[in-house]
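hey m, so remember when u said the tokens were messed up on ur end? i reran from scratch. heres the input so u can diff it against urs
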Amino acid sequence: MENRTYHHGNLRAALVEAGVQLARTGGPSAVVLRAVSREAGVSHNAAYRHFADHQDLLAAVAARCMEQLGLLMIERTARVAPDEPVPRAWARLAAVGRAYIDFALTEHGWFRTAFSGATPHGGTPRGATHKDTTAGGPRPDDTGADPYALLGARLDELVRAGALPAERRPGAEYAAWSAVHGLAGLLVDGPLRDLPADQVQVAIETVLAAVARGL
């Protein structure tokens, strides 16, 4: 069989990379061992030496998709221009929220795969902080490319800037994440999926403003 992806490197990483590419266009349903093996250019049996079953493979691919979301968040927050601490902290929080929704709108397959709920063999969830040697793009900061940790870092920044009282910080990520993820889901797979582009922007700004007011 001709090797198209795997040559002499890490076969597991090559299989995950193949799965990530399949997920990008086909979502979690496209990440199956036979298709990934074919894409990587190895036998189907070879994949079973690295993944116990389909869910094990999907969990690894989902972790990589989640990391892609985190890397976009990092990129967007890095673009925020220097400013006074308070407006800068709010702008960086908003950048994280917009990145999350933009990722859902532009990378449907990765977004659906990241939140597919897959767990590896044995049932221990693979967190978004998992690092794969094939990951590309800008390298994460000290929070890693874990979207949940990145959101938490932005909320902590608000506290340090004096924009969010410390006593209101615990649990704030639950409300912020739920609001943004809820809108993302409605826009991608829900009743808002046919919303005109200008109204999509109105919806995004409205939800982000509501999150800020709630904080």
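this time it looks ok to me. Confidence is low (pLDDT under 50) at residues 125-142. if urs says something different then somethings off w ur setup not the seq
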